[in-house]
Write a structure and sequence with these properties.
Elements: H1 15-31, H2 36-41, H3 49-63, H4 70-82
Length: 87
Amino acid sequence: MDLDKTVELVTNLDRAAIEARLKQVAADAKARSLDDIPTLLGDFVGMSQDELRKRVALCLQALSESPEHKALFTQLELIELNLPNLG
C-alpha cells in the first residue's frame, strides 16, 4: 500500500468490495508484521454488519497510536464508513 497515496472517499461499496478491501488490509498488515489485525478481523467473509463493525473498530483502536500505520488506519476508516451498505 502506497503510504503517500490520497484516499478517495467512496461510500457506495457493496459487500464484495468491502470484503476485497478487508482482504487487502489483512495482507498489508501481515506484511508489516501486524499479525493482530488479521486475527482481529477473523474470517470476515459473510460476517454480519454488526460483527464487522465491532472487528473494524477493534482494528482501528489497535492502530490508533501508530502514525506509521496511517495508510492501514485510513483504509479501515473507509471500510467503516461503508458498513451501513451491508444493512
